[in-house]
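User: Reviewer 2 asked us to show a designed sequence for the structure in our supplementary figure. I'm pasting the structure tokens here. Could you produce the per-position amino acids so we can include them in the response letter?
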């Protein structure tokens, strides 16, 4: 039996001029400029590992955004909680790690649930700020699904804040974006925040 769903192929556009060899060379220069000798056996391969690690962080996996007709007319909140988020702060190129809670009120179509996590990854795999990331996820789902409402909350620890500078160990940052009914209707908004475990 064939699926009645439709799929949009989502592929992250490659960074123009992506050059792993040049990145490895630059990583070596960067470490030596900070006084780190690369002569030892354990550090000799570090520039290459650094280049490959950042290439992986900046390359999301392609996926099919599969949607299905909302034949049952389901009009209650659909929420995926605790989706892992990993991204890199664009100001210091240090990681921030946490979870996203992504929900929507369906319109004419519903989304394959795993795709909510795929959309989070798609926008997280680039130098980011958490505020923009939150809005990009919500805006894209709004554009693709035309739902009655979209809500996104991200809770993350930023290592640029916990490992350096103020060194605020244990601190986390919470951002949210609400659209449509989840923004305009107080009861719907409260339900969303209650289910995410975030105090509105």
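Assistant: Here is a per-position design you can include in the supplement:
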């Amino acid at each position: 039996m064939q699926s009645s769903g439709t799929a949009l192929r989502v592929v992250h556009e490659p960074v123009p001029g992506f050059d792993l060899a040049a990145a490895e060379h630059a990583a070596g220069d960067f470490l030596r400029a900070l006084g780190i000798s690369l002569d030892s056996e354990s550090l000799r391969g570090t520039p290459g590992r650094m280049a490959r690690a950042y290439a992986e962080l900046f390359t999301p996996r392609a996926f099919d955004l599969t949607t299905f007709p909302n034949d049952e007319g389901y009009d209650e909140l659909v929420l995926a909680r605790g989706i892992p988020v990993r991204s890199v702060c664009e100001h210091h190129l240090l990681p921030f790690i946490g979870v996203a809670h992504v929900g929507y009120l369906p319109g004419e179509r519903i989304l394959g649930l795993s795709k909510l996590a795929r959309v989070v990854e798609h926008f997280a795999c680039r130098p980011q700020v958490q505020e923009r990331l939150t809005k990009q996820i919500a805006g894209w789902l709004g554009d693709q699904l035309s739902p009655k409402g979209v809500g996104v909350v991200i809770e993350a620890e930023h290592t640029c804040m916990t490992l350096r500078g103020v060194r605020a160990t244990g601190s986390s940052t919470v951002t949210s974006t609400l659209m449509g009914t989840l923004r305009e209707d107080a009861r719907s908004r409260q339900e969303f925040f209650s289910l995410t475990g975030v105090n509105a």
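For the response letter, you might also mention the following. The helical segments are 20-33, 41-44, 46-57, 114-124, 130-145, 159-162, 181-184, 186-196. The CA atoms of residues 70 and 108 lie 5 Å apart.
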